[in-house]
């Protein structure tokens, strides 16, 4: 239960950061990882695409998106 509260708080903080700075790729990256770890793969993919739209040279996001396309 404690871990869920931490994750919930982390998600809130990330959402606030992304809302305040919509092009904040680092916050989007960690949001994508949390989506992935919770099993929300479609949401993770969408967040990765959003990162790439903001920063097309973001190698980390590009590689992670490839992993989803070719597991």
Notes on the protein architecture:
- The chain has 71 residues and is mostly helical.
- It contains 4 helices and no strands.
- The protein has helices at 2-20, 25-37, 41-54, 59-69.
- The protein is flat, with a radius of gyration of 12 Å.
- The model has no long low-confidence stretch (mean pLDDT 88).
- Quaternary structure classification: single chain
Number of strand segments: 0
What is the N-to-C succession of helices and strands? HHHH
Helical/strand content category: mainly alpha
Strand residue percentage: under 5%
Q: In one word, what is the shape?
A: flat
Helical amount among residues, as a percent range? over 70%
| Tally of helical runs | 4
Mean pLDDT score, rounded? 88
Biggest sheet statistics: none
Q: What Rg do the Cα atoms give?
A: 12 Å
Instruction: Give the distance, in angstroms, between the N- and C-terminal Cα atoms.
Output: 31 Å
Catalogue the unreliable spans.
none
Describe how the helices and strands are arranged.
Blueprint: H1 2-20, H2 25-37, H3 41-54, H4 59-69
Give keywords.
71 residues; mainly alpha; 4 helices
Write a brief caption for the model.
With 71 residues, this protein is mainly alpha-helical.
């Amino acid at each position: 239960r404690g871990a869920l509260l931490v994750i919930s708080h982390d998600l809130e903080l990330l959402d606030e950061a992304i809302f305040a700075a919509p092009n904040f790729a680092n916050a989007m990256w960690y949001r994508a990882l949390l989506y992935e770890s919770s099993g929300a793969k479609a949401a993770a993919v969408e967040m990765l695409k959003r990162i790439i739209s903001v920063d097309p040279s973001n190698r980390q996001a590009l590689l992670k998106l490839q992993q989803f396309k070719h597991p």
